[in-house]
């Protein structure tokens, strides 16, 4: 999608600090970090939010995206202390970019509830 910020990061049109990339997903540093480690994990295919990830193919993509996020967290050294993987859907939940994304947060003790 031409006007999607994250799609433009996927294509390299907008620069980002890429942590890891595969054909199906990209992980990059969040420019508005909320923890010492804050990485966004996105599918390379445009999907507006998790609620649109239905059907066998997209459900498989969701599982792959979650596994990719866990792999990124491990590679960033977050396994020992732990980390959180979060997705927001819709404006009331705090979704500010309409492209499915997972936040990988770690590097400090995270509180609950999140806010």
Q: Helical segment tally?
A: 2
Overall mean pLDDT stands at: 95
Spatial shape: globular
User: What is the β-strand count?
Assistant: 5
Largest sheet: 5 strands, antiparallel
Explain what you see.
The protein is an alpha+beta fold and 115 residues long. It contains two helices and five strands. It has helices spanning 5-11, 56-75; strands at residues 18-21, 25-29, 37-43, 83-86, 102-106. It has a five-stranded antiparallel beta sheet with strand order 1-2-3-5-4, covered by helices on one side. The longest helix is centred in the middle third of the chain and has 20 residues, at 56-75. It starts with a helix and ends in a 9-residue tail after the last strand.
Summarize it.
The chain is built from 2 helices and 5 strands, in the order H-E-E-E-H-E-E. With 115 residues, the chain is α+β, with helices and mostly antiparallel strands. The model has no long low-confidence stretch (mean pLDDT 95).
How would the blueprint of this fold be written?
Blueprint (H helix, E strand, L loop, with lengths): L4 H7 L6 E4 L3 E5 L7 E7 L12 H20 L7 E4 L15 E5 L9
Antiparallel strand pairs: 1-2, 2-3, 3-5, 4-5
What are the defining features of this structure?
single chain, 115 residues, alpha+beta, five-stranded antiparallel beta sheet, 23% helix
């Amino acid at each position: 999608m031409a006007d999607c910020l994250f799609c433009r990061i996927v294509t390299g049109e907008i620069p980002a600090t890429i942590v890891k990339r595969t054909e199906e997903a990209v992980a990059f540093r969040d420019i508005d970090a909320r923890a010492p480690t804050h990485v966004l994990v996105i599918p390379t295919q445009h999907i507006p939010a998790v609620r649109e990830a239905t059907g066998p193919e997209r459900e498989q993509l969701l599982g792959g995206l979650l596994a990719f996020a866990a792999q990124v967290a491990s590679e960033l050294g977050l396994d020992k202390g732990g980390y959180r993987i979060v997705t927001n859907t819709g404006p009331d939940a705090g979704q500010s970019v309409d492209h499915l994304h997972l936040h990988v947060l770690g590097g400090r003790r995270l509180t609950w509830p999140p806010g």
